Fold this protein.
Amino acid sequence: MIKLLALDLDDTLLTSDKRVTDGNRQALLACLDQGIHVVTASGRFNESQLAFIRMINLGLEKNPHLGDGGGTIFNEDGILEIMGAFPRRIYAAVLKRIREIGLPCYVTNGENVYYDIAEQPLRSIYNQAKGARRDYIFPIDDLMAVKNPMKFVFAFTSEEELARIQEIQHPGTINFSAGRNLREITMVDMNKLNGLKEIAKIYGVELSEIACFGDSENDIQMLEGAGLGFAVANAMENAKAAADIVGEKTNDEDGIAWLIERYIL
């Protein structure tokens, strides 16, 4: 029996223009009415994610949610737990390689997002979420000064840029797709599945009682490891392969509602 839903946001619950459809909202409300917990599990920075949790408009703000790709558990009152920070020597080694290649990036640490190169593709993609309650993206002179860093974020606009980002490899870390035109580097054990294990403890449910919904490479571990893994129709092929069930509707076609109505309710 499913007792908790964990939903990715971008390209899964959210439409391409970053809305929550009424059909998806009504399906989630029906789950809540049956006593099923609903949480979001996103790669977004937690303050950005909270803006979309409010947009869902189902009173989920006080619920613990999984943010930063498995790096934080939080609600509107603040961060409840931070997981997966880089050991300092690994962070320094990865950052050195990034600088050698000459790549711009963002670094997140659960508290803010930092950058040291102003002109970069991320400025137009990974920007302040509309409705966020505070600023959280800041310039910094030296990324080595970031305390407890947990994630490097990159954007690419060509196959050449993608190949350069993929060159950055270091033992103990993982370099992966975080959505269309985005890549991230984290410690290998910082992922949504490990974060969901902590969420399960908070809610008093078993991992086998969780259904998760996703579309991207950063959803694969939770799609494989949760009780039920659902991929929307627009999901990447590797995410579809990891899921137990692939829906027939995309994120722009009430894809979450389609899955919930057939397999949860």
